[in-house]
Amino acid sequence: MAAPFCHCGEPTDLKTSWTEANPGRRFYGCSRYGVRFIHHCFLFSVTIRLLCRLFHPSIFSVDGVSTNGACNYFRWLDPALDEHMRNVLLNFHRRIRELEKRQNKEVSKFDRKMVSFIILGAIVFFLFWIGK
Q1: 27 with 73: CB under 8 angstroms?
Q2: SS3 at position 61
Q3: Distance from C-alpha of 110 to C-alpha of 107, rounded to nearest angstrom
Q4: Which of 20, 34, 87, 91 is such that its CA lies 20 to 30 A from the CA of 60?
Q5: Distance CA 96, CA 24 (A)
Q6: What tens digit of pLDDT does each residue of 24-69 get?
Q7: Structural domain spans, the chain
Q8: Which residues are in the GRF-type domain (predicted)?
Q9: CA distances from 124 to 3, 12, 116, 118, 131 (A)
Q10: Is the dihedral of CA 99, 102, 108, 111 positive or negative?
């Protein structure tokens, strides 16, 4: 199935929600969502906003300028989950995050031990080399 086009006229991105209300639920969203305008140059920012307003008026919401330049297009791909499946997915997702954190800690412990071993080896080699 081809991705629908958003109000900007761009193909949408397929994303996955991991909120408490909709874990694992896929949706189509504007590809510009989360992309920020460059605010450090006032003239550049104003120029871009004016051009967007002229050529893509749907980017701007009724109550003002969208903060991220996205048209806020949103459409669920998957149906809503029942309470049981929602809880199962949330528990799996939490467990995976816990395991990833534990693995990262173990890898960092291994990295510290490896660095210590290399430094110790370099010191021994240096002392041996000086002793000759």
Answers
A1: no
A2: strand
A3: 5
A4: 20
A5: 13
A6: 999 999 887 765 444 444 455 556 566 666 665 544 443 333 445 5
A7: 1-80, 82-132
A8: 6-80
A9: 61, 59, 12, 10, 10
A10: negative
What are the backbone dihedrals phi and psi of residue 115, each rounded to the nearest 5 degrees, phi first?
-65, -45
Which residues have a Cβ under 8 Å from the Cβ of 37 and sit 6 or more positions away? 45, 48, 49, 68, 69
- Does position 112 have pLDDT exceeding 70, yes or no? yes
**Residue recorded with tokens 């701007």:** 60
| φ, ψ at 93 (rounded to 5°) | -65, -45
Res. 71 pLDDT band, cuts 50 70 90: confident
- Cα dihedral across residues 77, 83, 85, 87: positive or negative: positive
- The residue type of 85 is M
